[in-house]
Amino acid sequence: MSNPVITHQPGAGGYGTNVQTGDWSTGLCSCCSDLLVCALGCVCPMALSCYTANKYGENCCLGFVPGGLTAMRTHMRLTYGIQGTVCNDALMTFFCGLCEVCRMAREIRIRNGEVSP
């Protein structure tokens, strides 16, 4: 019995690449485009963090874990094909945390068809 002959080798960079060409559906400061998310973020940001993680299919405590929002933003960005880097994810959630959680919640609601962009 003979071994199969390999006639094609995988190219460099072909494994594990993820093409990211999209953008977020709303801007960072577009909080008033979804009044429910805006109100929840202003009244109780931790509840919005829980709501966002739950709607995304994660444990609602993810927002309370250090780095949890960064991890969720990175996963969301990769899932939806949105441009960016892990470093940018960390900086955005650290310096613009509340606005970023609002944007992630709006993105989920838009992608689920609950609101229009």
UniProtKB/TrEMBL annotation:
Lineage top rank: taxon: Eukaryota
Which Pfam families does this chain map to? PLAC8 (PF04749)
> Do you know which InterPro entries this protein is assigned to?
PLAC_motif_containing (IPR006461)
Question: PANTHER family given for it?
Answer: DUF614 FAMILY PROTEIN-RELATED
Q: Mind telling me which NCBIfam families this protein's record contains? A: A_thal_Cys_rich
Family to which this protein belongs: Belongs to the cornifelin family.
- UniProt protein name: Cornifelin-like
This chain is encoded by the gene named LOC114842998
